[in-house]
């Protein structure tokens, strides 16, 4: 079969492209690093032209590898939120400000304290954070009004790449969801723009469309730069997380996907929006269906394991990270459920779900003179899994159907079993790790008329299912109560600690 569909994923730290046959076989892949610029405190930016050139380079490499094949389409996904601004001539208005930029944190705190974000919470089911377009637009207008006046279009990353590929302006339902969408009406809300004085931003945003829609055809200039055919169909760009969910074949309420990456993410598909002033987490519309994706993103996931494993790697034995991890896993398996009374709060980078507390710190609780390294290692793995359960418990309760797990942590078999036992539900792990690219590729193929995206993503995958142990789950329910009590107490204590100034420099 000589027909090829291409997926392009423009992430915060890496840009990837892959070419697939219709059966899901990957025949070519390219990757480039994506540089984050730190121009000042709290600032996270990227050079929009450099990001585009990285995407061009990846596409050119994949195109060369597929020379002679029939290229069917390109599908695009990328990092979400932030502020990617373009002027009337189609040129970047400075660097893109990213989703993890915090320069508007103080402004946001003031809005929250005066209840001015309540309309956004009720409408979009999302709690604002500093790196959303709303807060960054407010910052730009307040600090650089002259620059803001030159902005004609505000994109997300995937929108910017789609524009450069085709010359067309669009955003999809998932990228358009945060923070101004009315989840019931599926369109922007004037009340939400007005609540945070962002009326000037509305005219600069594209109305949301399905990610399986055709955005346009590849321009002649881009065709020359990449070696791909001019006029090649390109789909409306989508959020990387939404593409991953499509790539996993998920589009119905009740389905759940977990990511145990450097950070963790709990994604729950639902048909009910959290219409409250201050929701927990964020909400995004599904790329192709009417489902709502409830997104809870604890700040620390697999990074906690890496942190602990590298504290004293020589004492664990092993010369490589994988050998150290294997040694630590062996130790952890010798420890019973509950880590012999040790609880780990995984707030190494503060916390953002199921509660927001940038000042929270990680901690071990319950250590004694006989506490071992194995106890601590198991507590770390249990603590990060408990944060996932905490997200479920804060939303609608534990899942009632098997969940899919991806990310670097999904390759740790011991951790996968711990997660299954803690949430009380089977955990399904695919050996494939390219669901975002595959989802984007199938959205592109759908835009080219090849069929329904959710049908196109079906492929044979080797999976491993970790079956939840009912007895261990019952034991973990008591451990979770301990975890949640300690977490709540530490959040209260942290507020008092913040008022105490450390005399040391």
Automatic annotation (TrEMBL):
Domain spans labelled Carbohydrate kinase FGGY C-terminal: 258-448
UniProt keyword annotations, A-Z: Kinase, Transferase
Annotated protein name in UniProt: Sugar (Pentulose or hexulose) kinase
Family according to the record: Belongs to the FGGY kinase family.
Gene Ontology biological-process entries: carbohydrate metabolic process
CDD domains, per database record: ASKHA_NBD_FGGY_EcLyxK-like
Domain Carbohydrate kinase FGGY N-terminal: 6-247
InterPro entries assigned to the protein according to its UniProt record, in alphabetical order: ATPase_NBD, Carb_kinase_FGGY, Carb_kinase_FGGY_CS, FGGY_C, FGGY_Carb_Kinase, FGGY_N
GO molecular function, one term: phosphotransferase activity, alcohol group as acceptor
Organism: Sagittula marina
